[in-house]
Amino acid sequence: MFDRTQGETREHLMQKIIFIDFFDTIVHRAIPPEDVKKLWSKLLSSDLKLNVDIYALRFKIEAQLCADNFIKHQENEFRYNDMCALLWNDLKGFTDLNFERFLIICRSLELRIEKQVQYVNNDNVKFLIDSKNNGKKIYLISDFYFDLALFEELLKFHNLSELFNGVFISSEYIASKRSGRLYQKVQEILNLTSFDNSLMIGDNQIADVVNAKQAGLNVHWSDASVKHKYYSTTSATENLALLIGKFNYAYNVNQKLIYPELALSLHLFIVKLVSELKIAGAKDVLFMAREGEFLKKLFDQYVSFTGDAIRSHYFYVSRRSTFLPSLSSLDQEDFHVLFRQYINISPREFLLNLNFEDIQIRELQNVIDYDFAARVDNFPASIEFQQLKLCRLFGELYEDNRLQQLQNFNHYFSSFNLDCNELFIVDVGWKGSIQDNLANIFKTLKINGYYLGLNIATGETTKSTKKGLLFDPLTAFDISCSSSIYNECTSLYEVILGASHGSTSKYLPDGSVELLENEIERNLFHNTILPIQQEMLNYIRLVGGVFAWSNKTSNEIKNFIVRNYANFIFNPSAKQVELFSSVYHVESFGVHETTKFISGGGSFFSSLKKFIRAPKRYIKTSFWTAQKLTVEKLGILKPIYKFYRMRKIVK
Q: What's the angle, vertex CA 436, arms to CA 433 and CA 441, rounded to 5?
């Protein structure tokens, strides 16, 4: 980390040129550096279906190349392509690949692994950006076996390409910082008479400090001792809880991420989703708005590292936008998809769910004499509903709107150009109501729905199947089943999976969509949710690399994530509770309300009395039991609640 004392800042600002190391100065890794090669070797062996110890071969080849180059150049350096050429020579008897194809596979795989396990040192990057803006020239200088083309791919991945005036890699010149010869080479290439006005920043005391000083540079040591200790004391064979705990400490996860446990559960969901899609032979998958926006990002990130060729698409749908085009003619329609969940609604709310325009609602108000805004108990059995259905104007408007929306929806859907007889869709879940609407629209098309979780089974047929990947209707409320923990607070998933846009309102004649934009909701997303998602995306990428490196089975990883999530959801930190209590969820279907996830509070004794009087009701009516206990001053009961729930789970 760059230490900004006032004296150092003045000294460093005087330098005209800044040279900086890459590994453990600009970026760190989630796994030990040498284990990147071990993971590469394991995955290469698996991909090529070779029963060969590729890592042992690579280790021997690299040692030989370094020895040869030391004799020629007095440098223990090697070039990546040279290593691959010798490795292919050893393996060509076991594979039909020619060298050109083998080299492409090796380079692509190594680059993918490096991208998955690297993360940026934000402090040092910010210092470089500030320096660049102040007119400094910035050069990257690194001891590494990648060639410039591979290195530039890493810089693009981290959005750092425009930061550097030049990049110097030891393998390109067979000259290193470790020997000091790379500094001489850089001085020659840049035609510098001296390094008097130059600063070197790096983590290695010999290569980046001692040798840089001997070359005439001013130096700043970037302390990466925490990362170095993590590399040297962490093993792929150790207990997952210990391993992830060590990584979280090195990554400083508590400062970066408020819900790391939730991030791990989303990783598990994506892994299960990809597995299900591969088994089903899916070529395309539709992620349904709005929660699907972030799920699609997680999916795309995951398959970019696994190489699974499944195309993802973002599908603008909502319960509201798909409801009307899914309906039948008025004489055959009972609106059960709406009424099975929302029975006490106003006539106006009913019409809004049918996407009636305000002007159309006003026209109906002129011919039907009752208060359209007043909530009606059991609306489908009410006189108000019967009057509405018997109104000729309502029937005409309903039919015109329904047919127009069905036509517009089909126009929008055709834009995906999907060549398939069945549809694969993904959403956050709970009931899968949108899928029920889609099944009514498509009629003959088979729909396969994959959800984070389902707690109620609705509308399933042989042509429309649903699968909850973290929990399903059989396990959602069974507290003896470990997967029920993911159903403990579904509202938390809804909030964290917020989207950058409003809910889909309707489909337009040109095949586009109309969105219900809400400024308060938009501000919540950009100010609170988006930063959380960005950190989650990064963390899930890295922890996926740690899991791949760990050699643990998928079942061991699943069990670890379950225990980790249970410990969190039953006894969250004050910070985790505080954030959830400050946000809200906007409902654009049914009763069109905004939900706050916080209770009225009260004194400790009044809350305790309420809990003791009806504990089951207290728990059942909470969005998140542990959060409610905290907010209502019963935080002392959280460990007891956690103990009770953990004891109930069958091991």
A: 130
- Using DSSP's 3-state secondary structure scheme, residue 110 falls into helix
In 3-state terms, the chain is what percent helix, strand and coil (to 5)?
A: 55, 15, 30
Yes or no: say if 642 and 567 are a contact pair by the CB < 8 Å rule: yes
Q: End-to-end CA distance of the chain, in Å?
A: 44
- How many whole angstroms from its chain centre is CA 428? 13
CA distance 311 to 435: 20
DSSP-derived secondary structure for 590-613: TT--EEE-------HHHHHHHHHH
Separation CA 69–CA 130 (nearest Å): 39
| C-alpha–C-alpha distance, residues 5 and 22, integer Å | 23
Q: Residue 610's closest CA among 591, 593, 631?
A: 631
> Do 425 and 449 contact (CB within 8 A), yes or no?
yes
Over the stretch 573-625, which tens digit does the pLDDT of each residue have? 999 999 988 887 666 555 555 566 565 556 676 777 777 777 777 777 778 88
Cα separations (Å) of 551 from 69, 94, 196, 222, 618? 34, 25, 49, 32, 43
Contact 454, 471 (CB under 8 A): yes
263 phi-psi bin (left φ>0, alpha ψ -120 to 50, beta other) = alpha
pLDDT tens per residue, range 131-147: 999 999 999 999 999 99
Task: Convert the pLDDT of each residue in 232-254 to its tens digit.
Answer: 999 999 999 999 999 999 999 99
Nearest of 108, 121, 210 to residue 163 by alpha carbon: 121
Partners of 287 in beta bridges: 314, 426
Which percentage of the chain shows pLDDT scores above 70? 94
> Given this model, what pLDDT does residue 606 score?
74
471 backbone dihedrals φ, ψ, rounded to 5° = -155, 160
Task: State which H helix or E strand residue 312 sits in.
Answer: strand 311-315
**pTM of the predicted model, to two decimals?**
0.91
Distance CA 543, CA 248 (A): 9
Task: Give the Cα separation of 266 and 49 in Å (integer).
Answer: 30
Tally of CB atoms within 10 A around 365: 16
CB 460 within 8 A of CB 436: no
Site of tokens 């002129």: 366
Residue whose entry in the numeric block shows the structure tokens 């308060």: 520
Query: Are 543 and 271 spatial neighbours (Cβ–Cβ below 8 Å)?
Result: no
The conformation of residue 238, written as its DSSP 8-state character, comes to S
Residues contacting residue 623 through CB under 8 Å, at least 6 positions apart: 489, 491, 597
Q: Where are the alpha helices (DSSP H) in 48-137?
A: 54-73, 80-91, 99-117, 122-133
Check: CB of residue 158 under 8 Å from CB of residue 27. Answer: yes
Q: CA distances (Å), 285 to each of 324, 387, 542, in order? A: 24, 43, 24
